[in-house]
Amino acid sequence: MRALVAAAIGLAAALALVFTVAAVGSPAGETSPKPLLTTVPGPKR
Predict the structure, then answer these.
(1) Could you tell me which NCBIfam families the record lists for this protein (predicted)?
(2) Handedness of CA 13, 18, 23, 29 (dihedral sign)
(3) Per-residue pLDDT of the chain in tens (45 residues, 90 and over written 9)
């Protein structure tokens, strides 16, 4: 029974965190026009 209560409390806390982040939304800003490097640059020829 204690495990069930603990699981319910944990689930409620996780959902509260998800809903809080969803309500706040993403910060305003712009994406960088420069592409990200996905590989390590090799030696220059």
Answers:
(1) small_SPW0924
(2) positive
(3) 999 999 999 999 999 999 998 898 877 778 777 777 777 767 776
